[in-house]
Amino acid sequence: MHIIDISWLRLSIGFLALIIPAWILIYYRTKLFSKLLISTIRMTLQLLFVGYYLEYLFKLDNAWLNLGWMAIMIIVSDIATIDRSEMKLKPLFVPVFLATLFGIVIIDFFFLGFVIHLRDVTTAQYLIPITGMILGNCLRSNVIGIHAFYYSLNRNRSMYHYYLASGATRSEALFPFYTDALKQVANPTLATMATIGLVSLPGMMTGQILSGSSPLTAIRYQIMIMIAIFSGTILTVFFAIKFMNPKVFDKADRFRDEYLKE
């Protein structure tokens, strides 16, 4: 099957689809038109840059360049995660970076090495897009999980102190906060997994079908990606909180709320 290319002219025509939504935003005085304009321009420029860069990256296919780009993706994701979690960036960047790197490397290399069975797991064609899909979902989940854990702890500090006073260790006193944060992280992805295929056809699967792949091949890749996304989100959130805790708690197990942006 031959894939139909979209010319630059036809792509520019596609932007006309924004006219009616933009008019609605303006008419109802949402003050979101400027954000829509900026977001659309940023999306276009960023994707154009990434598209041209990936063309070069895929042709060169150098392992160190591929891993370097993967590190840049993780850094950008972690900066956004900490900022949107309403935590302070500078003191917490390293533990969040290490947590994300650790979680992504485990998932990437397991699926690329043992499931897809690549001879070279740093192959750009597979490493970059799969890392990007997992990271995109990890960013959202990390924001939810980190914010839920620390802000719930801040609101319910008396309960945490009660557990400690009753003889619980810090890990035992934090157990219910882990439970709540992990539930909030897992539920959206589990809901997607439970309805995928019936309610929606995901982007990766649709893209493969449009490019001429067999629907069954696309389905196998999509199942793999959903499992990778779920595993990656749980691992990165868990590791992020674990790695952040030595910073956020002092030696007497007291919660240091100066790391919150409140």
Would you write up a description of this structure?
The protein is mainly α and 262 residues long. The chain has 2 domains: 1-60, no CATH class; 62-259, no CATH class. Helix content is 77%, strand content 0%. It has 10 helices and no strands. The longest helix has 34 residues, at 215-248. The radius of gyration is 21 Å and the shape is globular. The mean pLDDT is 87.
The tally of helices reads 10
Number of domains: 2
Mean pLDDT over the residues:
87
SS-based class: mainly alpha
- Provide the β-strand percentage band: under 5%
Q: Note the run of SSEs as H and E.
A: HHHHHHHHHH
Radius of gyration: 21 Å
| General form | globular
Strand count, sense and barrel status of the largest sheet are: none
In quaternary terms, these chains amount to single chain
Could you tell me how far the N terminus lies from the C terminus, measured between alpha carbons in angstroms?
A: 55 Å
Low-confidence stretches: none
Tally of DSSP β-strands: 0
Helix content class: over 70%
SSE order and pairing:
Blueprint: H1 8-14, H2 19-27, H3 33-60, H4 63-84, H5 89-115, H6 124-155, H7 157-165, H8 170-195, H9 203-210, H10 215-248
Which descriptors would you attach to this protein?
mainly alpha; 10 helices; single chain; 262 residues; globular
